[in-house]
Specification:
Helix content is 46%, strand content 18%. The chain has helices at residues 12-24, 41-49, 68-82, 96-103, 110-124, 161-170, 181-198, 218-228, 236-244, 250-253, 259-272, 288-303; strands at 3-7, 29-32, 55-58, 61-62, 87-92, 131-133, 138-140, 154-156, 173-177, 205-214, 255-257, 276-281. Strands 1, 2, 3, 4, 5, 8, 9, 10, 11 and 12 form a ten-stranded parallel beta sheet that branches. The chain has a two-stranded antiparallel sheet with strand order 6-7. Helix 6 packs across helix 7 and helix 7 (181-198) packs across helix 9 (236-244). The relative contact order is 0.13.
Length: 308
């Protein structure tokens, strides 16, 4: 299985050590929120320089506060600092409340804005010159784009039918958070695959991010997920994808149970269409260190199993 973990720590030095340990334990990737150290790209670049194969991805950078040409140049600088391929840029329009209240920006046309943004950014990060005049974003990139040391894949945080189409047509796939297995199987995978096929593009990646906890008491594990999900549980975008998957809360969507049960649920994610698993380990019970170790050991064992 291609299994990744949540990345992030309080200092660049700790982020480097975290990435080195994840690589040594066989994990395929680490996924960093936009708030890590204020801006994750610099510590990610340093971590990439001190590792050799692990993928380092953002999940996700907000589109509205950063012009796509600037975003592309930031990514080019990061991959040049890494000195190797392995950077992936996950982006998304974020949420109306955050964009309006935090940045004071309009959120009137998130679908249109994101579609234009992805078209520009994905082409720039494939090394193409872009001359694009849109309603929300425009660019003439000639002589304004830094050289790319390696192409940088772009993943879109896509939950709506429109953005799933955009992800299939223009990006390299989608990075998801809190999409239950049923939602991936019935809503996400069919739409993004159909869009990619219609556009003549390769099969897209589907990175499925979910809370994961190996614990014998399922009720206690779900309560632990509830305790950590307050910041996003009430956001409309997450509520819609949870509902599409038949889940009423993040706790319902989480992957929890014994080693055997969690392994089976992760395989079901892949059967539903996920290509990658992003496991956000949730500690359960009074012994947080021991709880996280138990979950990590299972995930590492699954990540390093030979492919069948």
């Amino acid at each position: 299985m291609r299994i990744g973990l949540t990345g992030g720590a309080s200092t660049p030095e700790k982020i480097i050590r975290q990435a080195q340990r994840a690589e040594a334990d066989g994990f395929a990737s680490l996924w960093y929120a936009s708030t890590v150290t204020g801006d994750p790209l610099t510590p990610m670049a340093l971590a990439g320089r001190e590792t050799s194969r692990i993928e380092l991805g953002t999940a996700v950078l907000q589109t509205y506060p950063c012009h796509p040409l600037l975003q592309a140049n930031r990514a080019a600088s990061a991959v040049a600092t890494m000195g190797r391929p392995g950077l992936t840029i996950g982006i998304g329009p974020s949420h109306e409340s955050l964009i309006r209240e935090t940045y004071g920006l309009s959120y009137d046309h998130p679908g249109r804005s994101t579609e234009e943004y992805v078209q520009i950014l994905a082409r720039l990060l494939r090394g193409q010159e872009v001359d694009f005049q849109g309603e929300d974003w425009s660019v003439r990139s000639s002589d304004r784009m830094a050289p790319l040391a390696a192409p940088v894949p772009v993943l879109l945080s896509a939950l709506s039918p429109r953005l799933l189409r955009v992800a299939g047509e223009h990006a390299d796939g989608t990075v998801l958070w809190m999409a239950p297995i049923k939602a991936i199987d019935s809503h996400i995978a069919p739409r993004i695959h159909a869009a990619a096929a219609a556009a003549g593009r390769p099969a897209p990646r589907i990175v499925a991010g979910l809370p994961v906890a190996v614990h014998d008491d399922i009720s206690e594990a779900r309560a632990a997920v509830t305790a950590t999900s307050g910041s996003y549980a009430g956001m409309p975008n997450y509520q819609r994808v949870l509902a599409a998957g038949g889940a009423s809360s993040p706790a319902d969507a989480a992957i929890v149970g014994t080693e055997t049960s969690v392994a089976a649920q992760l395989r079901s994610l892949l059967d539903a269409g996920a290509t990658d698993i992003w496991a956000a380990i949730i500690p359960v019970g009074p012994d947080h260190v021991g709880s996280m170790r138990r979950t990590r050991e299972l995930l590492s064992a699954l990540a390093t199993q030979p492919a069948l």
